[in-house]
Design brief:
Elements lengths: L2 E7 L2 H15 L3 E7 L3 H4 L6 E4 L2 H7 L8 E4 L2 E2 L2 H8 L6 E6 L2 H13 L6 E6 L10 E4 L12 E4 L4 E2 L1 H10 L3 H5 L3 H4 L8 H24 L2 E6 L4 E4 L1 H7 L3 H4 L4 H4 L5 H7 L3 E8 L2 E12 L2 E11 H16 L17 H14 L5 E4 L6 H10 L8 E5 L5 H9 E2 L12 E2 L1 H4 L4 E5 L6 H13 L1 E2 L8 E2 L3 E6 L3 H6 L5 H7 L2 E4 L10 H11 L5 E2 L1 H9 L5 H15 L3 E2 L6 H5 L8 H14 L3 H16 L6 H10 L6 H13 L3 E3 L6 E3 L1 H13 L1
Parallel strand pairs: 1-2, 1-3, 3-4, 6-7, 6-8, 8-9, 16-23, 16-24, 17-20, 20-23, 25-26
Antiparallel strand pairs: 5-10, 11-12, 11-15, 13-14, 14-15, 18-19, 21-22, 27-28
Helix pairs in contact: 15-16, 22-24, 26-27, 27-30, 28-29
Length: 687
């Protein structure tokens, strides 16, 4: 749990220095608040687990404002090694004043400097508030001075004071974070600082060294260590061996290994003087890996030693090593709670994905670009039993074929020119026990598709230039915005791989099919970009009527656009739709073609009437007008095109179902969508 620490000081820069020290040692375990002495914030009350104060007199002044449950430390300060070197280089006998935040602190700092060996100069303590009238030619300050001194004054800036070693240890003790300090060398972390407390410094240095040596020893003793003499009598049986094998040391030491531990190959190793490495055996129901080595010195056999490890423990260590190899960046950051939306389409999608997460079968995520396929992939991983292992993502369309192959399968040393010394594990290996996410799977070359199919079938990979198969236990999630079924028909994607991947298919909805989520998503994205703007009614309607070909990604770009412009109110004129239209093709995608086909089925012999309504709505959109049923009826009547208001109502309802128009309540009228404008061109070509 995060601890809260409050720093009280006269100077913001001093508080910043202390904060950097504390954060560098305690990382995210401590949250730091800063209070400037004399500020109103202090009078409002200080809520913290620990309060750091510059002096006892300050404590008396602000004691009424400190929570009674808070711990308090009066800071012991020191200076940096560089500052001490500066002082030691000042000529002997120099007289000067030392300026600090207060006279009390200045007296304390003079004492510190003298204690560190700076007794060759004469220092007079003074407060920064009362130094303007000084006549000394040498002024030593802690940090930059905010006011000027008399001409000719030699100013020596030692930089801000630092927290002394004993205060750092005190903070750790008060906040119950000593264990955090024990994991690092405090002296090494603060080699730039000096301390008067040499005794504490030596103790910490010795303790750090002892802790380091003990850590190494414990790593060895984590494994079971069993030793026998040349006659096979057990002489060593550590605690690790007790835990793995289940026998007590007191009952086993001194016994004959061949009878007590017949599964261990001591007899063979002693007789043949040859090691047996990494042998998998079963002891008391556990799979155990044993390596047994003879102990020979000057050609004399002294005995043998066996290192015993549970196979499950080895798996865990391999997982940790993979984490180090692949880096912290390959973690799934998002869960299902991060997927926003209240529409039925997205709710249904999330519900299906949650059920899929419980399975180990391959998942095929489809949907337009920007619909959140990787977000869903990460959420599925974090909702699965593999959540504590790696989530490895690779974009199959972002890498050339040769590089993609080496990234996926890895390579052995010398496999090709430029291959890394020692080789490199592939992403299949690094994702062992976890999830491998292959984005843009439709871009994968055919020969790599064959290799991927083999991995899915056999769950084993071979590195480039290698001669051994490596078993992998992975869950595959793939994603694409392409029509794989059409690609299969054209011979661009392997049919067998398609059906191997499409065990659990999930199609993500486009933003235009869940328009009720648009405005809530905008509000949420405002928080992400730390902005706040209001949409006019017309802007909201235009946003809802937009086709959103870029989906969530496009919406996010718009919100970022508004944030960067610093707009407080966004109207239709501020929407960058017109500038973007030229980037989009007028051709229909597969989903839009399906909607046009439905329109032709619904309209049948009345398709010209649908085209008339769409054209009039397009004209009104260009003129930034809204048309209702009554207005459309009058326009049709004027042009000699007979349509009843009821027919127009039916046409508009059908067009809205097909996402070609958006009907607004009341007298707000109807607006044509981007798809509707594209459909006009499509219908004109056919009729």
């Amino acid at each position: 749990m995060e601890k809260k620490l409050a720093i009280i000081s006269y100077s913001p820069s001093v508080m910043d220095t202390y904060q950097k020290q504390i954060v560098s040692l305690f990382s995210d375990k401590v949250l730091v608040d800063k209070y400037f002495i004399g500020s109103e914030e202090i009078r409002k009350g200080i809520e913290a687990d620990l309060v750091l104060l510059p002096s006892y007199s300050i404590f008396l002044d602000i004691k009424p404002y400190i929570n009674k449950s808070s711990e308090v430390i009066v800071i012991n300060r020191t200076i940096s090694q560089e500052a001490l070197d500066t002082i030691m280089n000042i000529p002997e006998g120099t007289e000067g004043i030392l300026l600090d935040e207060s006279l009390e602190l200045a007296v304390q700092m003079v004492s510190i400097i003298y204690g560190l060996g700076g007794r060759h100069i004469e220092l007079t303590p003074a407060s920064v508030e009362n130094h303007e009238n000084t006549k000394e030619k040498t002024v030593i300050s802690l940090g930059e001075l905010t006011s000027t001194l008399a001409p000719g004054t030699d100013i020596i800036n030692l930089g801000n004071a630092l927290l002394d070693l004993d205060t750092i240890v005190d903070i750790g003790a008060k906040l119950n974070l000593i264990h955090v300090l024990q994991r690092q060398d405090i002296r090494k972390s603060y080699k730039e600082s000096v301390t008067r407390n040499s005794g504490l410094s030596n103790i910490i240095r010795q303790t750090n060294r002892f802790e380091s040596e003990l850590d190494i020893l414990l790593q060895v003793l984590d494994d079971g260590i069993i030793g026998v003499n040349s006659k096979g009598i057990i002489s060593i049986f550590n605690e690790g061996a007790e835990n793995i094998i289940g026998y007590k040391r007191t009952k086993i030491v001194g016994g004959q290994a061949a009878y007590i531990l017949p599964h261990l190959p001591f007899e063979y190793v002693l007789k043949n003087r040859e090691p047996i490495k990494e042998k998998l055996i079963n002891i008391n129901g556990y799979d155990v890996v044993v390596s047994t080595h003879p102990i020979i010195h000057s050609n004399r056999l002294y005995g043998a030693v066996a290192i015993v490890r549970k196979f499950s423990d080895i798996e865990k260590k391999q997982h940790k090593l993979r984490e180090q190899l692949i880096g912290k960046g390959h973690r799934a950051k998002y869960s299902f709670e991060d997927i926003s939306g209240e529409s039925e389409e997205i709710k249904k999608c999330i519900d299906i994905a949650k059920r899929m997460a419980k399975s180990d079968s391959s998942i095929l995520l489809t949907g337009e670009s920007g619909t959140g396929k990787e977000l869903f992939a990460q959420a599925i991983h974090n909702g699965s039993k593999r959540k504590n292992y790696q989530f490895v993502a690779v974009n199959c369309g972002a890498l050339p074929e040769s590089l993609l192959e080496s990234e996926l399968f890895g390579y052995e040393e010398g496999a090709f020119t430029g291959a890394r010394k020692g080789g490199k594990p592939g992403l299949f290996e690094l994702a062992h026990n976890g999830t491998l996410f292959l984005d843009e799977i439709g871009e994968m070359p055919l020969n790599l598709q064959m290799r991927l199919l083999r991995v899915l079938q056999e769950r084993e990979v071979m590195r480039i230039g290698g001669d051994r198969l490596i078993k992998v236990n992975i869950r595959i999630i793939v994603a694409t915005n392409r029509d794989l079924k059409t690609m299969v028909k054209k011979g661009e994607f392997r049919e067998d791989l398609y059906y191997r991947l499409k065990v659990l298919p999930l199609k993500l909805p486009s933003l235009r099919t869940r328009k009720e989520d648009i405005l809530p998503l905008i509000n949420e994205m405002e928080k992400t970009f730390n902005t706040n703007f209001d949409l006019t009614k017309a802007a909201k309607e235009a946003l809802l009527a937009h086709s959103w070909k870029g989906n969530i990604r496009e919406l996010k770009n718009y919100v970022e656009y508004f944030a960067n412009l610093g707009l407080r109110e966004v109207d239709v004129e501020d929407l960058p739709f017109d500038e973007e239209e030229e980037f989009y093709e007028d051709t229909l995608n597969s989903e839009e073609e399906s909607l046009v086909k439905k329109l032709l089925e619904i309209g049948e012999d009345k398709i010209q009437r649908y085209l008339f309504v769409l054209e009039e709505l397009e004209k009104s959109y260009t003129d930034k007008r809204r048309l209702g049923r009554r207005t459309l009826y009058l326009i049709a009547l004027e042009k000699g095109f007979f349509l009843s208001e009821q027919e127009i109502r039916t046409i508009l309802i059908n067009l809205e179902k097909l996402l070609m128009v958006k009907i607004y309540t009341g007298r707000s009228g109807t607006v044509i969508t981007d798809l509707g404008r594209k459909v006009i061109k499509e219908l004109k070509q056919k009729y």
